[in-house]
Every structure is written in C-alpha cells, then in structure tokens.
Amino acid sequence: MQSRSLIEERYTMIADLDSKPYTVEEINAMIDQAERESAAGLGQDSEEMFRELEEEFALGEQ
Asked: Residue 54 in contact with residue 12, Cβ under 8 Å?
C-alpha cells in the first residue's frame, strides 16, 4: 500500500492539470517516473485507488 504522501502527491498533480499546460518533456518525465515506480512495485491500480477514495469519502460523510 502506498504512503499517504504519495497519494496526496498524485492528487495534487491531477488537480494542477487545469492550472497550466505541461510540456512534452514534462509529460515524458511523468511517464518515465510512473514506469520506474511500477517496475519497483510502487504503483497503485485504479481499483485500489477508487476503493481508498470511497472509504475516505465515506468517513468524511459520517
């Protein structure tokens, strides 16, 4: 399971998509980083990510 800071980092990156366009070099660097993380077993599949988000939102609604 990923640390909270890595998940927050990913969320911040996604939230920033609307604030500035990325250069081709920045996109390639993000892809390279994601491939390295995946190869090291640090990646998170979408099912796990959505499960964690659903749990987090469910806790916030209580």
From this structure: no
